[in-house]
Specification:
2 copies of one chain form a homodimer. Helix content of chain A is 66%, strand content 0%. Chain A is mainly α. The first copy, chain A, binds a DNA duplex through helix 2 and helix 3.
DNA sequence: CGCGTAAGAGACGTCACGTCTCTAAGGAGA
DNA sequence: TCTCCTTAGAGACGTGACGTCTCTTACGCG
């Protein structure tokens, strides 16, 4: 019997967790079920992660890169913001609300850094827009900068169904753009 | 031994659940602990609520009335919106994030109605403001109407500490009022 | 005054948790 | 090539809470 080790084994574990998550959802995912799917023992999991939440978070990170490394650059402010929000929507509707809520409940110390990340992304987008002259200034209150991503996150968390794209465009056109003094033409 | 019944007993149960929630938090609250505190058996709880989440929600409703029944009327748009947001903040910082997240995770069908409720509250406030002439029109996109309360809810859920009042005022002054075309004087 | 509903109490089976223990694989070093 | 040491693979184990069931007994209703 080939015995897996190190990084190879770890990848198998994370894949097993991801598969379990996609197939049965967070509530059904147990350390036992992941171990069984990976054809190993629970101890192998507990050696690496302290609990279910950490395992699942690691598996999410393993499975998909971060939005931060993939900031859209469409050439227009509107396009960029839509791109970011759409990425968030896609990312999380894949998971479903029960995973999100479960994780929140079990991982009290889920990086606050994760949330502030989006602030940086939005700041970059706004800066570019200002340089292009689309808007007057990149000097925008933080609360405005984070409004679209926060509202998006709110939708994701509280709507029990995938976020419709009409909501995404409304967030951009009726909330964000007006706030940064972007006058709509068309 | 006096045997409690009906509404009297129910109140005792809800109070016990609330006390347990305040004292130990949602994670520590078990059907057993509530039953013990109320000096009764688990069956009495299960006869009324299907699970922990339903019990806790009932206990929250029992303990504090709804914001809807208490819409602020300060005479100014700004004051009214601040009032609503502050009520939300107070309400939920009392509970703590673990209760919120726990409930979300365990009560998948937590009334969507609960969220849309706030839309009505905000609509009423805006309507009054329009009638007073503070703003040009009460015809505001839903996404704008719900922006402040949704952002507030977002803060409550994701900040692990009480929401500072500076955030509350920023939401009103930098996001909501500009969106409804309220020009700040001072 | 007798009946029926539900309170009070707790036993019970189940499930997943997280810990522990044991055997054996297979890489590193001599 | 042999030995040692880490750790994979497997599963037993104790614990805690769940939600169900059962039993006795209080008490409101007719």
């Amino acid at each position: 019997m080939e015995r897996r080790r190190g990084a190879e084994l770890e990848a198998v574990l994370l894949d097993a967790a991801w598969a379990e998550l996609m197939e049965s959802g967070y509530a059904q995912l147990t350390m036992e079920s992941v171990a069984a799917r990976a054809q190993t023992g629970k101890q192998v999991l507990y050696r690496r992660w302290r609990n279910r939440a950490e395992l699942v978070i690691a598996s999410m990170r393993h499975h998909a890169g971060s939005i931060v490394e993939n900031v859209p650059d469409t050439g227009s402010l509107r396009g960029d913001v839509l791109g970011v929000l759409q990425q968030m929507a896609d990312r999380f509707t894949q998971l479903g609300p029960d995973t999100i809520h479960g994780l929140m409940a079990e991982a009290p110390d889920l990086d606050p850094e994760v949330y502030s990340r989006m602030t940086g992304v939005m700041a970059a987008i706004v800066k570019r827009a200002a340089e292009r002259g689309e808007i007057a200034t990149a000097d925008v209150p933080v609360v405005v900068l984070t409004a679209p991503t926060n509202l998006m996150r709110h939708e994701i968390f509280f709507s029990h169904s995938p976020v419709p794209s009409s909501t995404v465009t409304a967030l951009v056109d009726d909330v964000f753009l007006p706030l940064v003094g972007f006058s709509r033409e068309t």
